[in-house]
Amino acid sequence: MRLIDIGDVVTLRLQANIAPNGLSVLRDLDEAIFAQVANSGYPVSHFELKSAYGWSLARICATNHQDPELHTVLIGRQRLWDCLRDHVPDDAILNNKIVVGLSFTRDQKSRMEFADGSPGLEADLVIGADGAKSVVKRYVTGNGTVDEHPAVFDGLIGVGGFVPSSYLSENEPRGTMTVTFGSQGFFGYGPSTIAPQSNHFAECIVPMGDEAVWWSTYECKDLPDTRNFDQVDIRRQLRKRHAGWRDPVIQKIVDEAVVDSIYPTWIMPDLPTWHARGVVLIGDAAHAMQPSSGQGASQGLEDAQILSMFLAYCLEKYHSQSAPHAGAQIPGTISAAVDQASKNYFEIRQPRVKKITDRAKQMGDLKRKKGFFEEWFTYLILWIIGKLPVDSYTRQVFNDLPVNEARKIIKNDKAPIAIHRSYESIFE
Question: Which residues face 211 on adjacent strands?
Fold first, then answer.
């Protein structure tokens, strides 16, 4: 297996939420990886929802209520990337390569073409984890010449970064991430590191460290130039947008924080498929979703887990079934295994992801500009939500894990292997 790394040195300045379902994937994968990721972020047991007037509207649970109980972990994206990178061998990565296209060989392999003109790389399976602007996606949903299902700018822009945790209130409840809604957008903040020697394994609440994360989301009809923009004007807009918001933490952050990047929200339309001809999409390449979901990273982790489970099972199954044939690898067996694994992966993952993306869009709309009545109606809805018990949607996302469904399918599978038609005569 080889990972293709474009080689750009980019510091990821925003945060990621690893929800209990995402943490369960890491724990299944490797206890050491799970521990490193969990203890590199801050455990959150609740989301505190507020109005721009400073009123507390709702306190939403961020745990899975299982044994052991897992909290959501708030972690800087760069820190998360570093944790995962620590467990990937250097020789498994092909550095400084940009994939610009794919071609398909007669023996049903995919050939990656590189921007620098270096020799292409052939593979039985190409996994496109190349984000919302995926190059690989063009070959899954079309013929590769144009992107027939491009990601869409959702009309929302985010700015954010990290500040000293001393900016937060001394009265801030432990294990809380605060999110505030107003007529001009949305503002969130919370700790992103833990105090030294406070390992928590996402199972308990601990003192915060010296760093906190913040972010502001607002509506913007036109897609801005993310490389060339006026930083002074962006800061001016930030202060103006949140002027009058009564949370002193927000006022301190907008007065002193540095804004050097802006982040448009890209969402993926529903794709007809996530796989074709030995090419599979995972993560944002398959389903870029609103950050409001709080599930972006966790859904990418679920993708990787389910796809790898079915690949391992199908390859072992097809290999054992081909063993009686003179001990030779039967042409088409690997591609058939990849096709079956990809099909199972899509059938399990797509319905779950669809529910999450639909819900995220509804929450994302709350971050847009609102008139007087819209703003107060939003507060009413959030207040009502806060009075309800933990909703079935949250429980389903946190606890109804797709890995359990995948295990059932594997356990009950008795279907014969389905080799491509052009190879059927080999068995005769």
Answer: 164
Q: Is 75:42 a contact under the CB 8 Å cutoff?
A: yes
Q: What is the pLDDT of residue 385?
A: 87
232 CB burial (10 A radius; 0-12, 13-18, 19+): exposed
DSSP state of 400: S
Condensed to tens digits (0 to 9), the pLDDT of residues 224-279 reads: 888 888 999 999 999 999 999 999 999 999 999 888 889 999 999 999 999 999 99
The model's pLDDT over 32-45, given as tens digits with 9 standing for 90+, comes to: 999 999 999 999 99
Q: What is the pLDDT of residues 298-335, one digit of tens each?
A: 999 999 999 999 999 999 888 776 655 544 455 557 88
For the whole model, what pTM was predicted? 0.91
Helices and strands, number each (H, E), in the chain: 12, 18
CB 71 within 8 A of CB 60: no
Are the CB atoms for 5 and 94 separated by under 8 Å? yes
Sign for the pseudo-dihedral over CA of 235, 229, 81, 405: positive
For the CA atoms of 9, 264, 284, 78, what is the dihedral angle to 10 degrees? 40
> Mind listing the pLDDT tens digit for each residue in 344-369?
999 999 999 999 999 999 888 889 99
- Least Cα distance to 217 among 249, 180, 268 occurs for 180
Question: Can you tell me which residue has the tokens 């869009």?
Answer: 361
Which pLDDT value is given to residue 15?
Answer: 85
Q: How far apart are CA 79 and CA 207, in angstroms?
A: 19
Q: Where are the beta strands (DSSP E) in 246-340?
A: 263-267, 275-276, 279-281
Segment holding 61, helix H or strand E: strand 56-61
Q: Angle CA(97)–CA(350)–CA(71) in degrees, nearest 5?
A: 85
Q: How far apart are CA 191 and CA 186, in angstroms?
A: 18
Tokens 């790389």 belong to which residue?
Answer: 121
- Residue 344 CA to residue 410 CA, distance in Å, equals 10
Q: How far is CA 132 from the centre of its chain?
A: 11
Angle between helix axes 402-412 and 20-29 (nearest 10 degrees) is: 50
Q: What is the pLDDT of residue 51?
A: 97
Q: How many Å separate Cα 297 from the centre of its chain?
A: 3
Those residues whose C-beta lies under 8 Å from the C-beta of residue 310, and which sit 6 or more positions away, are 340, 341, 342, 344, 345, 406, 410
Distance CA 22, CA 34 (A): 10
Residue recorded with tokens 């890995």: 403
Q: Has residue 420 got a pLDDT over 50?
A: no
